[in-house]
Amino acid sequence: MHTTRTVPARPVLLIALTGSLLLTPNSASADPEPPTRESAGDHGVARAPESATRRALTAPTTGFTDTTRGYPREQVLTPDPVNPADKSVKLGLTPYHAIAPRLNALQGLGDQVSVEVAGRSAGGHRLYLVTVTAPETTAQARAQERMRELIENAPASAAKSREIKAGYKAPVFFNNNIHGNEWEGTDASLKIIEQLATAKDARTKSLLAHSRLYFNITANPDGRIAGTRANAGGFDLNRDFVTASQPEVRAMRQIEIDKQPAVMLDLHGYVNGTLIEPTTPPHGENYEYDLFLKNTYANALGMESAVNGLGYTPAKDGVEPAQIPFRDQEEGWDDWPPIFTPQYAAFHGTVAAHTVEIPLAVNNSLYESLPVAELRRRSAINTAVAGAAIRATLGFVQEKRTSLIADQIEVFRRGATGATQVPVSEETVPGVPGIGPEDVYTTDFPRAYVIPSGSTAAARLVDHLLANDVRVSRASRDLRLGGRTYPKGSYVVDMRQPKRGLANVLLADGRDISDKVSVMYDISGWSLGRLWGATVTPVTSGSLAGAPLRRVEAAAHVGHVAPRGDLRLRLTDPQEIAALNSLLRQGVPVRRASDGSAIVPASARNLAAEAARTYDVVFDATRQTGTAALHRTRVAAAVTPGELFALREMNFEVTPVSTAVLNAGFDWSSVDVVFVSAGLDRDALTTGARTALDAFLGAGHGLVGRGVTGAELSAATGLLAAKPVEGNGDANGVVRVVNSGPVTAGAPDHGFVYAPVWFTDLGPGVRVEQSYATGSPLVSGHWRPLPDGSGGPAAAAGQASVVSGQRAVLFGTEPLFRDHPKGEFAQVGRALFTMAHASSG
Questions:
Q1: CA-CA distances (angstroms) from residue 71 to 145, 252, 339, 374, 725?
Q2: Residue 834: which pLDDT band, with cuts at 50, 70 and 90?
Q3: pLDDT above 60: residue 347
Q4: Which helix (DSSP H) or strand (DSSP E) does residue 129 occupy?
Q5: What does the alpha-carbon distance between residue 455 and residue 452 come to, in Å, rounded to a whole number?
Q6: Mean pLDDT throughout 69-96?
Q7: What's the pLDDT band for 12 if we cut at 50, 70, 90?
Q8: DSSP state of 557
């Protein structure tokens, strides 16, 4: 999952990471140690096909609706065509095309193995969920489902239930291969499933009689086949759980909701020695961390013993002893953000959740440089290590089933009753050594959140909460709460609910943790309440007893078209941008208004009505006539995968480009504007490619740029006089901003940064569209000054974060980051429309 910076440990331990200098037997060399944060993964140029985006945007969220059918639930899987290019083959591992036949064979071994298709990947491949358990009749399956629902929905009753204590099967979830080029968890799981299916001993029979074991065979088949970390859409799926933009993550989310695992393993690679969660501080403040730490640490000890018990040694095999970050490191491997699979699982009642990093690297440059025999030797060891971790976890579940379920019930009870969190200490979490004040993270939950209805952003946010199994109600009349009156139709998130932690992690501002640790591994702020464009109000006091509230299953549609006159589309939301692009593709004559909105003629009312239904947007009546005509906007985009996905989500016609693409020859007449943030270096272009790019921009076509890469192209081509200043490259989070120009009109007063940039030395004609707020702009996240005192939030305060001119718009923020800050997307849409029409004045 992630790598660390080694620091003084508790106790001191020499840690060999993925880039260990240790030369293993038969290895030619070692990769240098990778950076702490995977900036390359986030900011590499995007190449994903449009089909992957389309599948991701249109793939339904499907639950396991038939939860009362007995086991086994067998089906015959149609084999996939044989693919000799599957990257697994070289490693001696199971290629994707061999998985379906293998699962068919495993189902034929008896009545304990069932296979379901949990969804499809962005690349169109099936996602297989295997359940291993003792056979159940329909009546028994219904009883298990009734007990599962009681645990979540009536935890006080569940805690007293003798039926649950005696007969509830502990759900356990094994997630494999979420990073496509970290293969071996899949093969270990297939071997374990076969062993369980054929075992006749009393211990295995008892295990399957008292638990359901769920195996997500490969969470990322696209990456498994291609040998890439990301899926076909270019997304790191283990960063996507806040937004669930990708179908693979939505499938995993549904498994968490429907199966409600008490224990889960997420099998990764590669850290030598094997790295087993729990992690270093900071710890997520919305978890019931005392319960999580107690169980996660206990299972980690068992996995450590099992892995070390395989007998691999540094001298003989190149395998270092296993390590547990909570015990062995000070910082650098945190569980703060809910974007990682185990951290997200905790919000659905998982009380022992682990990332497990198996030891010997076989991916990236080593995949090409090491001999096949050495790669297969390493993969065999990795498979054995992953298998040992799985088997140890099965033993842990068998021993601790009753207490694990009791702790899961307690998680939901605390949420439902509004109980205060229990700070971790040696007294509250006995058996876990070394707990100190640096490990204590708790929060004060509000009584409720209120989201006014009527906007596209509010409807999108409410639907997202519901998809995450957060309960939302709606006021049937005006609501008085916390000394304030909210109008009829307002949505209310009662924070006395089983999954209050997930509600809070999505909606709260978060916290500035810059002073807590020196570095964070990944994002540290992510508030959807601030970044999705909806108004979200925390209510700290008051009672909901007798309040006129009714639970909702979906947000009310807001799409509407005024019955008479010309129509105005505000263009402050990505769905409004998508609707506009849809109309433009259909040839509707749209004009731009002076406030940046779009004016649609009354003659296109029927098409507007269709767009309103499709994108859930509002077309108001207007008397404005508009100025310049808007046309279809075709974008050449040298951008990150997240940015490419967001552009396509807004219905822009996008052609990915890069230095290599331009050097190979590119037809600039096929596009209207260029968006550059990654993967395009003007100095590395051939003379012909550079001349063609300069001619395109010189003809008046505009540039939208993000970060230093975009600003450097602007400077090199003389488009905009502005000096980019780089902040701390390790910084990220939610920031306060001040919007002051037409590109940012209607945007939220908060933005997102990841390696923030600001602009100084602005030349004549340069407009400040947006600035970082004065004071400290950081609301939540991690942003420290550099050692020389520069690059911090104080240096950015009041400085321009977005600037524009006649031929360029430059962003120092991250308005399209990982399909995440949706309330910011429209800024880029407006900028692209503005620059696409620069040549026409």
A1: 13, 21, 32, 41, 61
A2: very high
A3: yes
A4: strand 126-132
A5: 8
A6: 96
A7: very low
A8: P
One-character DSSP codes across 391-455? HHHHHHHHHHHHHHHHHHHHHHHHHHHTPPP----TTTSTT-TT--GGG-------SEEEE--SS
On the question of a cis peptide bond just before residue 273, with omega within 30 degrees of 0, the verdict is yes
Q: Locate tokens 């909702």: which residue?
A: 552
Helix, strand and coil percent figures for the chain, each rounded to 5: 35, 20, 45
Quote the tokens at residue 48.
Answer: 């994903």
Q: Where does residue 200 rank: exposed (0-12), middle (13-18), buried (19+ CB within 10 A)? A: exposed
Phi, psi of 321 (to 5 degrees): -60, 150
Task: At 73, list the tokens.
Answer: 């639930």
Per the structure block, which two tokens stand in for 298?
A: 């206990």
Provide φ and ψ at 840, rounded to 5°.
Answer: -95, 5
434: number of Cβ within 10 Å: 12
What pLDDT score does 840 carry? 53
- Up-side HSE of residue 353: CA atoms within 13 Å toward CB? 25
How many residues comprise the chain?
841
Spell out the residues 6+ positions from residue 42 whose beta carbon is closer than 8 angstroms to its own: 236, 640, 642, 754, 817, 818
Question: Do 150 and 158 meet the contact criterion of CB atoms below 8 Å apart?
Answer: yes
DSSP 519: -
CA distance 388 to 302: 10
Per-residue pLDDT at 29: 28
DSSP secondary structure letter of residue 22: -
Whole-angstrom distance, CA of residue 50 vs CA of residue 273: 40
pTM: 0.94
User: How does the average pLDDT of the chain come out, rounded?
Assistant: 93
Residue 143, SS3 per DSSP: helix
DSSP type of residue 214: E
Q: Where are the alpha helices (DSSP H) in 435-562?
A: 456-467, 500-507, 528-531
Stated as kind and residue range, the H or E segment containing 300 is helix 289-308
- Two tokens at 90? 């070289």
Q: Is 294 left (phi over 0), alpha (psi -120 to 50) or beta?
A: alpha
Comparing C-alpha atoms, which of 360, 351, 286 is closest to residue 316? Answer: 360
Confidence at residue 38, expressed as pLDDT on a 0 to 100 scale: 43
pLDDT at 60 over 90: no
Asked if residue 123 has pLDDT above 80, the reply is yes
pLDDT-derived band at 98 (thresholds 50, 70, 90) equals: very high
Please choose, from the candidates 317, 275, 795, 239, the residue with its C-alpha nearest in 3D space to the C-alpha of residue 521. Answer: 239
Residue 35 has pLDDT above 50, yes or no: no
Q: What is the pLDDT of residue 46?
A: 81
Structure tokens at 685: 């272009």
Give pLDDT tens digits for 819-832: 999 999 999 999 99
Of 244, 256, 246, 253, nearest to 222 by C-alpha is 246
127's tokens = 């996602």
Residue 479 near residue 490 (C-beta atoms within 8 A) = yes
- How many whole angstroms separate alpha carbon 401 and alpha carbon 760? 60
pLDDT at residue number 335: 96
Q: Give Rg (Cα) of the chain.
A: 27
* Residues 331-343 pLDDT 10s: 999 999 999 999 9
pLDDT in tens, 659-674: 999 999 999 999 999 9
Tokens encoding 712 = 């450097």
Q: Which residues are within 8 A (CB) of 247 and not within 5 positions of it... i.e. 6 or more apart?
A: 55, 56, 59, 119, 120, 121, 122
Report the interhelical angle of 574-585 vs 641-649 (nearest 10°): 60
pLDDT at 11 over 70: no
Interatomic CA distance for residues 431 and 230, integer angstroms: 38
Cα pseudo-dihedral 452, 456, 457, 458, rounded to 10: 30
**What b/e readout covers 8-24, taking b as 16+ CB neighbours within 10 angstroms?**
ebbeebebbbbbbeeeb
Per-residue pLDDT band at 640 (split at 50, 70, 90): very high
